[in-house]
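Hi W., the iron/sulfur cluster complex you wanted:
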Amino acid sequence: MTATTASATRLSHFGSVLDLDRAQRIQRIKALLKKEDAVLVAHYYTDADLQALAEETGGYVSDSLDMARFGHTHKAQTLVVAGVRFMGETAKILNPEKRVLMPTLDATCSLDEGCPNDQFSAFCDAHPDRTVVVYANTSAAVKARADWVVTSSIALRLVRHLKSRGEKILWAPDRHLGDYVRRESGADMLLWQASCIVHDEFRAQALVELKRQHPEADVLVHPESPASVIAEADMVGSTSAMIEAARTRPAKSFIVATDNGILYKMRQAAPHKEFIEAPTGGHGATCKSCAHCPWMAMNTLANLEETLLKGHNEIHIEEPIRVRALRPVERMLNFAASEKTAVLGLGNA
Ligand code: 13P
Ligand code: SF4
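Structure:
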């Protein structure tokens, strides 16, 4: 055997040991979920293994609005939320009687971090005439100060609704999403200035060049991206809406401007279509971001198993804060439900 063949054999042996390890871990997690009466709810940006596991075990993979809805209606006593901290907190706000666990409590979000409660409260105090609308990517304390919570899938519709009632809006924390909603709705909106470190990295000029190389491709953009990137989009929407667009639009290839964890679901939804990641570095960039949320990536099979085994990483929220945060979260869910009913022609919102 040559040295190259021997090392290839060692590598493939190493690979199959890892595969076996992974398969055994997945089996142990499945058994633990059953034993603990737990259901796994994962965001589209988490590792493909976690998404597959959620689907195989009767759990759910979705955007942040549907994660909240699913956890609220499922009968399991323990919700295991694979995503970032605000997603676990939203689950707890809605389900105080349930145990909410996360594979890691360190998975935060740059929007949540960029909107500290004390500064946000002062901002609200300075503008008492405005309706406070906060993105779901915020702490429970910030939600507790809000009139409404929204996710990207419902933000524009809700702001249009508030505008039609003559309300002026204070928006936090994502400046790009806020700016997009303001442009589309024409509402009077005062914007907090945080941003998502993943979407902020997409580059419009490089995207224009990529479009030239793929003139047949549709461009799908998440509205946390800068306005110049959104301007190049064929479709702008939440993660769920982007996947639906990939499935239903006639195009055979798509340029995708959001976290690349979403490609697992897009390929599942449209297996014969091609997906190209939108560029994150412009001309002359010496380093590029990987278009993958570092906090979503902290969720792994290993820490999920450990969490289920030890029952740690539980979400706790002080009850007065939870009760105050519940109101705007419930308002969002009720608004989403009434919109759905109206869209289906089953009644009027
Ligand atoms: P969605 O609500 O579209 O899933 O977005 C959540 C998020 O964190 C996007 O970066
Ligand atoms: Fe937050 Fe951006 Fe990560 Fe979404 S992708 S969780 S907005 S940092």
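Residues 171 and 191 are 5 Å apart (CA to CA).

W.
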